Amino acid sequence: MQSVTLKVQGMSCNHCVNSIEGAVKQLGANAKVDLSAGTVTVEFNESNITLDSIKEAIEEQGYDVIN
Amino acid sequence: MQSVTLKVQGMSCNHCVNSIEGAVKQLGANAKVDLSAGTVTVEFNESNITLDSIKEAIEEQGYDVIN
Ligand SMILES: [Cu+2]
Ligand SMILES: [Cu+2]
């Protein structure tokens, strides 16, 4: 298991939290959004899933992953 | 038909727009959110529906109707 905290722009409300956490969950990973910090902490099994695919899932929801 | 523009607090993204416009539509009225102005313009038939019921529907979505 790997845990990475991403800086993400454009998250503003609980709907955003749900859409990001839900999209990452669909990949079989876990995400926890911190709205005030503007971060998403993802936990994933790096033998099943790549960090890039998680970033893509977040961007597909309409947000910018900064790092 | 009556048209009223309400000042609403807490709307921050397109998810908010959808939840408010959808909730008002379910009442059989029409709503148009202006995110940057922080307003919701509602159009409704005052013989079928009250402005108060529209305000309640918006508040049930988690927003504060100021006037
Ligand atoms: Cu949002
Ligand atoms: Cu929102």
TrEMBL record, chains A, B:
It comes from the Bacteria. Residues 2-66 form the HMA domain. The keyword Iron-sulfur does not apply. Keywords: Chaperone, Cytoplasm. InterPro entries: CopZ, Cu-bd, HMA_Cu_ion-bd, HMA_dom, HMA_dom_sf. It holds the Pfam family HMA. It is found in: Cytoplasm. PROSITE patterns: HMA_2. NCBIfam families: chaper_CopZ_Bs, copper ion binding protein. This is Copper chaperone CopZ. It comes from Paenibacillus terricola.
